[in-house]
C-alpha cells in the first residue's frame, strides 16, 4: 500500500515512510492510494469477531507488508487494552465512550497505535524526534503512549494557559523522553511552528515526525471504534448516524474511511464549538478560517482543521454524495453548559463540553431523521473538565484510577515565544 501527498499525487511513499515522516516534503497530508471495502461475509458475521480481530481486518490493507501479521496483531492488542462502552442515554441516542484509556481521551487509541508502529520501525533506525502540537488532549495521550519508547524523543508544544489543569499535568510530568514546550500563543500557533519545522531545510538532519492526527498511524486506527459501535447496534437494523465533536477533523474523517470500507453508516455530523470554519464553509462555500476562539471545549479550538483536506479528497468527485453523508453544525459554550445540565436532569448521565457538542449535533440532525439511531462520540472523561462540569451540575466527580497520582506530581515545562526559540531548542 502506498500513500500519496495531497499536494502532489505523483509523490508516493510506503506506510513506513509516511509514519516516519508524518507530512510529505511538500507539506501535503498523506492519503492512501486505494481502499478496498471489506467482504460482506465479514459484516454478516461481525458479532463473532473480537475487537482485536475487527481492528486487524480494517487496518491490514493500510499497513500492507510493512509490519508482519503477528507483530501487527500484537500492536493492535496493546492499543485496545481498554473498553469502548456504548451507553443508551435516551431512546435511540447512544454515547460511545472513548475515554477509558490511560489518559481518559479517545486520542489514546491513535497515540498507542502510532507509538508501537514507530517502535517497530525504529529497531535499527537512528533516533526519531516526534513533534506534537496540542490543544489539550493530544499531548497527554502522546506523552503516555510514547513514554519509554526507545530511540524516540517526544517534544510537545501546548498553548500556555489554554489547557485544563489535568491536561497540563498529563503532558508536563512524565519526564524521561518527553519534553513539554509551553508556547505563548494559541494551538494554531503551535501547529504552525510544527509545520514550519518540517519544511525547514536547516533541520533536515534531524529525524522529525509528527504525532498529530495528520500522521496516518494516529489517524487510521480511529476507524476501529466505529466498527465496534456498529457491532453493538447491528441487530437493531436501523440506520446509524454518528456525530463527532470535531476540532482537527481527524476523528470524523476516520469515520468516513470506515464507511468507505463498507461499514453501514448513514450520516455523519461534525459538531464544532464557536470555531465554526467548516459549518460556515458548508453554508456559503467560502473556506475562511477566523482567528481561533478559546472555548470550554478547548481540544476543539481549531479554526483551520488539517484533516478537512482528507475529507474533501474522499469526496472530491462527488459533491452530491458529500452533502448526503455529511453535515456540520456549530454550538457555543452557553448551549453546551445548558445541555450538560439538561442531560443530567433527564438521564443522570454526565457529559463534558466536547461530548455534549456531539450530542447537540446529533439531536439537531435527528430532528429530520426520526427512523435512525444516533451515536455521539464522548471523547473525554468529564473529570478532565471537572471545573466546568462540577459547576454546571453542582456536584463533585469521582476521581478515576488513572488520575490518582497525577496531582502529586510537579509540572516541568520550557517556555517559548516563537519559532526562533523552538528552533534553538531543537538544534541543541
Ligand atoms: C482532540 C479532541 C477532539 C477533536 O478531535 P479531532 O479529531 O481533532 O476532530 C474532541 N474532543 C476531545 C476531548 C479531544 O481531545
From TrEMBL:
Q: Where is the Threonine synthase N-terminal domain?
A: 3-79
Q: Which residues carry this modification: N6-(pyridoxal phosphate)lysine?
A: 107
Q: Which PROSITE patterns does this entry report, sorted A to Z?
A: DEHYDRATASE_SER_THR (PS00165)
Might you give the EC number(s) for this enzyme? 4.2.3.1
Q: What class of enzyme is it?
A: lyase
Q: In which pathway does it act?
A: Amino-acid biosynthesis; L-threonine biosynthesis; L-threonine from L-aspartate: step 5/5
Its lineage reads:
Bacteria, Pseudomonadati, Bacteroidota, Flavobacteriia, Flavobacteriales
The protein in question is named Threonine synthase
Catalysed reactions, semicolon-separated: O-phospho-L-homoserine + H2O = L-threonine + phosphate
Show the GO MF annotations: pyridoxal phosphate binding; threonine synthase activity
Cofactor entry: pyridoxal 5'-phosphate
* GO-annotated biological processes: threonine biosynthetic process
InterPro entries with a match to the protein in the record? Ser/Thr_deHydtase_PyrdxlP-BS, Thr_synth_N, Thr_synth_N_sf, Thr_synthase-like, Threonine_Synthase, TrpB-like_PALP, TrpB-like_PALP_sf
Species this protein is from = Flavobacterium enshiense DK69
Give UniProt keywords alphabetically.
Answer: Amino-acid biosynthesis, Lyase, Pyridoxal phosphate, Threonine biosynthesis
Amino acid at each position: 500500500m502506498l500513500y500519496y501527498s495531497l499536494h502532489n499525487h505523483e509523490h508516493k511513499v510506503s506506510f513506513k515512510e509516511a509514519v516516519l515522516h508524518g507530512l510529505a516534503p511538500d507539506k501535503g497530508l498523506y492519503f492512501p492510494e486505494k481502499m478496498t471495502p471489506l467482504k460482506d461475509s465479514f459484516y454478516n458475521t461481525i458479532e463473532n469477531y473480537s475487537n482485536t480481530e475487527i481492528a486487524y481486518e480494517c487496518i491490514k490493507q493500510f499497513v500492507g507488508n510493512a509490519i508482519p501479521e503477528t507483530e501487527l496483531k500484537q500492536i493492535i492488542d496493546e492499543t485496545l487494552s481498554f473498553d469502548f462502552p456504548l451507553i443508551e442515554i435516551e431512546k435511540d441516542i447512544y454515547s460511545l465512550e472513548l475515554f477509558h484509556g490511560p489518559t481518559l481521551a479517545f486520542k489514546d487509541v491513535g497515540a498507542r497505535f502510532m507509538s508501537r508502529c514507530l517502535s517497530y520501525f525504529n529497531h535499527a533506525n537512528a533516533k526519531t524526534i516526534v513533534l506534537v502540537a496540542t490543544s489539550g488532549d493530544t499531548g497527554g495521550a502522546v506523552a503516555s503512549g510514547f513514554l519509554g519508547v526507545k530511540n524516540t524523543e517526544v517534544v510537545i508544544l501546548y498553548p500556555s494557559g489554554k489547557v485544563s489543569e489535568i491536561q497540563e499535568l498529563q503532558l508536563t510530568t512524565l519526564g524521561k523522553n518527553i519534553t513539554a514546550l509551553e508556547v505563548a500563543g494559541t494551538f494554531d500557533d503551535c501547529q504552525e511552528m510544527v509545520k514550519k519545522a518540517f519544511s525547514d531545510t536547516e533541520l533536515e538532519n534531524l529525524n522529525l515526525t509528527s504525532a498529530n492526527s495528520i500522521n496516518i498511524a494516529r489517524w487510521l486506527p480511529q476507524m476501529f471504534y466505529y466498527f465496534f459501535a456498529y457491532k453493538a447496534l447491528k441487530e437493531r437494523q436501523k440506520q446509524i448516524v454518528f456525530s463527532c465533536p470535531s476540532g482537527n477533523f481527524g476523528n470524523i474523517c476516520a469515520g468516513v474511511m470506515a464507511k468507505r470500507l463498507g461499514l453501514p453508516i448513514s450520516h455523519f455530523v461534525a459538531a464544532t464549538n464557536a470555531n465554526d470554519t467548516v459549518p460556515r464553509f458548508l453554508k456559503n462555500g467560502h473556506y475562511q478560517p477566523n482567528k481561533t476562539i478559546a472555548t470550554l471545549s478547548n481540544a476543539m479550538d481549531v479554526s483551520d482543521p488539517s484533516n478537512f483536506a482528507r475529507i474533501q479528497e474522499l469526496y472530491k468527485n462527488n459533491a452530491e454524495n458529500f452533502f448526503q453523508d455529511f453535515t456540520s453544525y456549530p454550538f457555543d459554550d452557553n448551549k453546551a453548559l445548558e445541555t450538560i445540565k439538561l442531560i443530567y436532569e433527564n438521564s443522570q448521565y454526565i457529559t463534558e463540553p466536547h461530548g455534549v457538542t456531539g450530542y447537540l449535533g446529533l439531536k439537531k440532525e435527528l430532528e429530520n431523521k426520526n427512523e435512525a439511531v444516533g451515536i455521539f462520540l464522548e471523547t473525554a472523561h468529564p473529570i478532565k473538565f471537572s471545573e466546568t462540569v462540577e459547576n454546571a451540575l453542582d456536584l463533585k466527580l469521582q476521581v478515576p484510577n488513572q488520575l490518582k497520582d497525577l496531582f502529586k506530581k510537579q509540572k516541568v515545562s520550557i517556555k517559548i515565544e516563537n519559532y526562533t526559540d523552538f528552533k534553538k531548542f531543537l538544534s541543541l
